[in-house]
Amino acid sequence: MNPQENQPENTATSSQLSAKRAFALFALFLAIQTLTGLLIGVIVGVVAVLQGANLQDPEVMAQINQQAILLATISGFSLASIIVLYLATHWFPQEIHERSMNGAAWKIGPPQPLFLSFGGGLLIAITYLVLAPLISTPPGEESMGPFAQMTTTPGLQQIVALVIALLLAPPVEELLFRGVMFGGFCRSFGPAWAATLTTLLFVASHITEALHFWPAFLFIGLMALAALWLRVFTRTIGPSIALHFGYNLAMLSTILLAT
Known about the structure:
Order of helices and strands: HHHHHHHHH
Radius of gyration: 21 Å
Number of domains: 1
Helix content: over 70%
């Protein structure tokens, strides 16, 4: 008998899912978007100066800002998403598909929960759209966050907003928050703290969009808690992605109809 057979399986520390490494991935996700936005802003400004743009003209500056926001949002979120997906699969090769609360649960799951979760996302968004204006006065267009402004601008910006909100954000954010971060925090702090911290960080990551309309924080938090419950109950990320997709679809559809 080989004596090595009685030894525990060797798991590399670099692939161990933990709160520290999960938070590092979250911080990297935000840092990439921030740094990319700053770099794009500088590049757009330099190009405008080289082309002889009149930076004293408010209309010219508004156009430059719109171009910078569009390019920064596309490149920043896309690059951050690619890196998160890559690192999650390479940092945590053993835990990425683990379906316990200590894993990332990167599985689609059976179709029936997907459809029910999609309907749940629609319901949460519709409830927000009906009740939120009764709770507080919605902000004007000038007080909207950068992503919301993109969705209200017909043309390329609106198309980009649709692609990000429907195709990128649901899988990437669910893998990051309800997958890697919840699993890592759960390993280190237990399920109660993991649920609390991941939900608070998810809400905080959307602060630029909800800052001027406080009811938005409540329903973003409600959506996050529903997605987390689905992840724990089904032990897969698929239903959480479906709920996130349904929520974003209802919100964007309302904006598109209004514009």
